[in-house]
Amino acid sequence: MNKKILVIPGDGIGPEVTTWGKAVLEKIAEVYGHDFSFQEALMGHVAIEATGNPLPDETLAKAQQSDAILFGAVGHAKYDNDPAAKVRPEQGLLKIRKELGLYANLRPILLFDELLDASSIKPSILKGTDILFFRELTGDVYFGEKKRSEDGNTASDLMIYERYEIERIAHKAFEAAMTRNKRLCSVDKANVLESSRLWRETVQQVSKNYPEVETEHMFIDNAAMQLIKDPKRFDVVLTANLFGDILTDEASQIAGSMGMLASASVGDGTGFFEPIHGSAHDIAGKDLANPLASILSVALMLDISFGLKAESQLIIDVIKKVLAEGFRTNDIADGSTNPYKVLGTQDMGKLI
Ligand code: GGG
């Protein structure tokens, strides 16, 4: 199989982890006889430094011509501490999602049994958890109008959804539910927010096309609590952009670490694959980052964009084997009393 893959390492730990995602793609190509060619492009803080633009035209053009994109992370503390900054690294990520029509962000909470002790939640509560989140990705407060009053003392972000935006991601989530356990939970705040009432009404309508799927609706505050209390009650979770962003960071603790969660953004065009974690500048360049989320993102790419299921499963099996042998990066090693063999980014990447 011939495929053109664009690698966008981005900021902070992005380049360290995508190095290993790309290396795994090269190894898969070698083992299975595929022809994967790679290009690189800038996005985020590094792109602002080089061009003044968090998403240069050249990056977007390369993205549109690729078969799949492997992305690292964007962000820099400098902007977090400067709320007045007009140009920010995250604008690059939001813009590329919009431009490529990537409206559905799939975030599987893949729990390796070997990591049951890496979570602060009891193993008996966690064991058997397998959740697939569908986070809407091109609407909500992220894209609604942002305003600041002239005196600077009032600010607003418009939480806005169009019916068609909810319909198209709801169909994707229900289709996934049909291939899994036929259970779907839609998360909103319909007791308070008008956009959530439209969300709920639309999901109820779409659900009529999937009568076999047991559909429930839950408020975001309750969902945040149930996720810790009884994660196994969830199978497919469908939610809006902001709620999905927050809930999946919370859910990463079920899997042991933010460094374990991969994501796939899909929609109208080229698929976009990235760890859910951000740029983590505090550990950048220290060989501490966990490359497994990037490597698992590659497994998603092979499965979802290229239909290479065996290759994708091989990556998951290899990660399972390495974890079973006791190898860990710092974020999934349990403090100083553990019996694990703790590896840096490079050694974990090479081992996989
Ligand atoms: N790899 C994910 C990443 O870079 N996240 C940083 C970020 O700004 N995320 C915003 C979002 O996911 O909406």
Summarize the structure.
By secondary structure, the chain is an alpha/beta fold.
Main sheet characteristics? 10 strands, mixed
How many distinct helices? 13
Number of domains: 2
SSE string, helices as H and strands as E = EHEHHEHHEHEEEHEHEHEHEEHHEEH
Distance separating the two termini: 22 Å
CATH superfamily of the largest domain: Isopropylmalate Dehydrogenase
Radius of gyration: 20 Å
Please report the first level of CATH classification, the CATH class of the largest domain: Alpha Beta
Instruction: Say how many strands there are.
Output: 14
- The CATH architecture category of the largest domain equals 3-Layer(aba) Sandwich
Q: Provide the residue-averaged pLDDT.
A: 96
CATH topology of the largest domain: Isopropylmalate Dehydrogenase
Bound molecule types: glycylglycylglycine
Q: Helical percent range?
A: 40-55%
Taking pLDDT < 50 over at least 5 consecutive residues as the criterion, the unreliable ranges are none
Helix and strand content put the structural class at alpha/beta
- Percent strand: 15-25%
Keywords: Amino-acid biosynthesis, Branched-chain amino acid biosynthesis, Cytoplasm, Leucine biosynthesis, Magnesium, Manganese, Metal-binding, NAD, Oxidoreductase
GO molecular function, one term: NAD binding
Enzyme class: oxidoreductase
Protein name: 3-isopropylmalate dehydrogenase
Describe the structure.
The model has no long low-confidence stretch (mean pLDDT 96). The protein has helices at residues 14-32, 45-51, 57-64, 77-80, 89-99, 123-126, 163-179, 194-207, 220-229, 241-251, 292-305, 309-324, 345-351; strands spanning 2-10, 35-40, 68-73, 104-110, 130-136, 146-148, 155-157, 183-188, 214-219, 236-239, 262-266, 271-275, 327-329, 341-343. It has two domains: 1-108 and 259-352, Isopropylmalate Dehydrogenase, CATH 3.40.718; 120-254, Isopropylmalate Dehydrogenase (3-Layer(aba) Sandwich). Helix 7 crosses helix 8 (194-207) and helix 11 (292-305) packs antiparallel against helix 12. With 352 residues, the protein is an alpha/beta fold. Helices cover 40% and strands 21% of the residues. It has a ten-stranded mixed β-sheet with strand order 2-1-3-12-11-4-5-10-8-9, with helices on both faces. Strands 6-7 form a two-stranded antiparallel ribbon. Its cofactor is Mg(2+); Mn(2+). Pathway: Amino-acid biosynthesis; L-leucine biosynthesis; L-leucine from 3-methyl-2-oxobutanoate: step 3/4.
